[in-house]
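Annex B. Sample input.
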Amino acid sequence: GFSKILNRVAELTGLKPEDILTTGRSRTVAAARSMACFWAVREVGLSQTQLSQTLQISQPAISKAVSRGEKIVKDNAFSLMRE
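Annex B, continued. Sample output.
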C-alpha cells in the first residue's frame, strides 16, 4: 500500500514518511513526493484520483509528479523493493 511506498521513499531520501506528505516546496520533498506518486500509480496501481485526494493536490499535479518521479527513479536506479 501507499504507506509502504512512503516508508521506502523515506529510506531512500533520508526524510520522514510524514515529511513527504507535507506541501513544502523543498526540492528534496518534491522529489520524494514525485517518486511516491510514480510508484503508487505505476507499481501499485493506485488511481491518480485517489492519490490527489490523499495528497491534497490536483490530478494534473499528480500526473506531472508521476512523470518527474519516473525520471528520478530511473536516473538513480532506485527500486521500490529493497535490494
